[in-house]
């Protein structure tokens, strides 16, 4: 990448992040690299997004439903990677999203006989309920539905249903306890 291209990329990233701040005045956004469509990103009042964190909200790979919604008083920590990739991501109220988390709304197709990069994406997004704690290093994959009050242990890989009030951990994540 030429120096001029890098300068344009940095400028565009700074401008996009400023548009994100203006569109979500009740949220605290620091050191976030934002890309995509600001109008599809709703951060409720008292949301904190601490960087360096990457948020990309938009469409891709044949999917057109990319949007990000984050509920009141949710904290999103450092070094996170949140990408809608054409599918919705919803994070509830009063959540703690630790550091080094990846949340993706869709994935590349993997059918044989075609290169992966040429295939349409698939995935129906991610839903994280209210009062959820996602531990450091976790990966939340397309199709994850995490119930209210659940805890995801550090370094877990989650896809599918996590019932409310349960504690899930591992790769793939499975129930290891319940909140008491």
Automatic annotation (TrEMBL):
Signal sequence span per UniProt? none
InterPro entries with a match to the protein in the record? Hexapep (IPR001451), Hexapep_transf_CS (IPR018357), Hexapeptide_acetyltransf (IPR051159), Trimer_LpxA-like_sf (IPR011004)
Instruction: Identify the domain of life.
Output: Bacteria
- Pfam families, A to Z: Hexapep
Q: What does the UniProt keyword field contain?
A: Repeat, Transferase
- Give the residue spans that cross the bilayer: none
Q: What is this protein called?
A: Acyltransferase
* Phylogenetic placement of the source organism: Bacteria, Bacillati, Actinomycetota, Actinomycetes, Micrococcales
């Amino acid at each position: 990448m030429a120096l001029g291209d890098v300068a344009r990329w940095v400028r565009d990233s700074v401008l996009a992040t400023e548009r994100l701040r203006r569109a979500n005045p009740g949220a605290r956004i620091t050191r976030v690299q934002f890309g995509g469509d600001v109008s599809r990103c709703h951060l409720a009042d008292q949301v904190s997004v601490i960087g360096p964190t990457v948020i990309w909200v938009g469409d891709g790979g044949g999917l057109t439903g990319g949007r990000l919604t984050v509920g009141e008083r949710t904290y999103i920590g450092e070094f996170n990677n949140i990408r809608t990739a054409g599918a919705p991501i919803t994070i509830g109220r009063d959540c703690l999203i630790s550091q080094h988390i990846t949340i993706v709304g869709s994935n590349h197709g993997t059918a044989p006989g075609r290169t992966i990069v040429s295939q349409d994406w698939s995935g129906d997004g991610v839903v994280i309920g209210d009062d959820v704690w996602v531990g450091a290093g976790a990966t939340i994959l397309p199709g994850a539905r995490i119930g209210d009050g659940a805890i995801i242990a550090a370094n877990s890989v989650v896809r599918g249903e996590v019932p409310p009030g349960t504690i899930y951990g591992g790769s793939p994540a499975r129930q290891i306890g319940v909140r008491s």
